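The instructor's notes for this session suggest beginning with a concrete chain rather than abstract definitions. Hand out the sequence below and ask the class to guess, before any prediction is shown, which regions might be ordered.
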Amino acid sequence: MIHWSHQEEGFCEGSFKSSFFRDDENGDELSVGLQSPDLIECAEKCVEAFNNLTESQISEICEEIIKCAKEGGIDEEFELPAIENALDILNYCWFTGLYVNMLSKEDEISYVVEGEGEWGEVIGFVVENNKVIYVGTDYFDYMKDK
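After discussion, reveal the predicted structure:
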């Protein structure tokens, strides 16, 4: 599921195909990062959970991203068009990476997803134990091992 390009103690990086969210080139390839090769099994679980988010979870994420976009960003020229369906916000943002937010195999599945909106703001969301717990700009505050 994950193609590993870099594995060493302190940081591992790879890429995977996203089943729903698009990347910055309108494709489906996102990066995955983790602190140690010992967590590779955790990374696989996180990617699987990410690719199996439910429709209601994706809608919840999108509704919160809409709130972020309406609050504005650094691109003052961007004006969010009327959104009829919450999923339409995905036409104005993209995602670049998933960070494993687990310290051991015994932890509940937890990950942080990072992206950006056309309004010029970096955004992300945090999922722990299959629940969306945060969507917004301060997603790294939820990282267990910063």
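Then share the key points. The chain has a mean pLDDT of 94. Residues 81 and 129 are 34 Å apart (CA to CA).
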